[in-house]
Design brief:
The protein is mainly beta and about 130 residues long. Helix content is about 15%, strand content about 40%. The strands form two sheets. It has a six-stranded antiparallel beta sheet with strand order 2-1-11-10-7-8, with no helix packed on it. A six-stranded mixed beta sheet has the order 9-6-5-3-4-12, with no helix packed on it.
Length: about 130
Amino acid sequence: MITLTLLLPGKAVPVQNWTFETESVVKIGRAADNHVVLYSAVVSRHHLEIRRGASGWEAINVGANGTYLNGQAITKVTVIDGMVVRLASSGPKIQINIEQEESAAKRHLAKLQRASMNPTQDPPHDSNKETLVS
């Protein structure tokens, strides 16, 4: 499982989270067909892809304005749990958290068990994937 957190500009304060349990590719950009849509002038329509590979997750820049890690432009980098990337040199910051597969499976099992104990519960609310970033 992978969780992306949009951080408040200039601070490490979380603004919004997106969690992906089954996707092997998570796309981030300004276009509506991305998994994470960020409306910012410096974010490309298709800016960043985070892909699960045989040796773990990789972040791949696909945007014209670049993706930065610790102030350095990247083309492709292995994702480390908790790392923060910036979309464009002055754009939004995204923190990437990776949960080990075993922990994700345990959480999913617990969710199924809770649902079977309370079958009248409303389905989970799907948060809006679109975010305005200034």
